[in-house]
Every structure is written in structure tokens, then in C-alpha cells.
Amino acid sequence: MKTTHIVSRVLFYFTRFLSVVYFGLASYSLLSLITGWSLTFKDGGKYFQVCYPFTTHPVMLGDYNLPYILFDFLAPLSLYGLFFLLSSNVFKLFYQPKLFTQNGIQHLRRFYLSNLLIPSIVLFIAFFFVPLDNEVSIFIVLHGMLGVFAYFLAAIFKQGLNLQNEQDLFI
């Protein structure tokens, strides 16, 4: 069980770090796109480059049109920030002193609902504005499978919490 605690703690910090990076990139890119700060254009304004602060070296590149910016650039960055934040909350469950808690079930519930619903909703809305690649459908399927797995894990945690509560009543 000690190995599980170590691995889950490492994964918690790693996914939390990735969450901060993705949210930071999304926020910085949005700030650059709104204000024009650290933003350069290529090919007569067809492409944009979000540059590192106070430099002209690009960190993010993209097509300069609103549907692309919203659905192919900012949405994936911010949604993967959310994904890694929710993932870190799930990993945090496995190094807590008490494994089966109502709070843990809530974190798993948020994780599976976000993996099942958000990609499909964003894909449905984006379908009307931007052409979708085949890779996008693969990611939707993978998030769906992850959501189903997390749903079953939440059901196991709920059963474990019920058994733990029954055991506490007998003591």
C-alpha cells in the first residue's frame, strides 16, 4: 500500500503542475489575443504567434480567425487544464488516510461527468463552426472510455463507503 501512496502522490503533483501549465498558457494566450501584447502575425495576418513575454520568440501558434481561436486553440488548452485538475483530485484520494469518503466519491463523480459530457458538448458546438479532424474523434472516444472507467470506480468507492459505514456502526 505504501507504493500506491507514493505513486499517487507523485501523480497528484505532476497532474496539478500540468493543470497550472495548461491554465497558464490559456490565460496568457487569451490576454495576448485580447490586448495584442506579445502577439505577432505571419502571412499578412493569416496566422498569429503568441510570444514569450518581452521577446519575439513564439510559444503558441495558430490561425487568426475567431472559430479556430475559440474551438481549436483556447478550448483545448483550458479544458485540458480542467482535465488535469480533476485528475489530480482523483490521485489525491489514494494517499489520504481514509480511502472511502463522500468527498472522494464527489471527486470521482466530477471526473467521470466531465469526461463523459464536456468533450461531446464542445464537439457538438464546434461542429457548426470549424472542420473537425479524425484525431478529435479518437480523443472523444478515449475520454468516454476514461469516463466510464471512472464511473465504475466511483461505484466501487460508493460501495466501499457503505461497507465502511456499516462496519463503523458495529464497532
Automatic annotation (TrEMBL):
Record key words, sorted: Membrane, Transmembrane, Transmembrane helix
One Pfam family from the record: DUF2975
Transmembrane segments: 12-34, 68-91, 111-130, 136-157
Organism whose genome encodes this protein: Flavobacterium saccharophilum
Taxonomic superkingdom: Bacteria
The protein's name: DUF2975 domain-containing protein
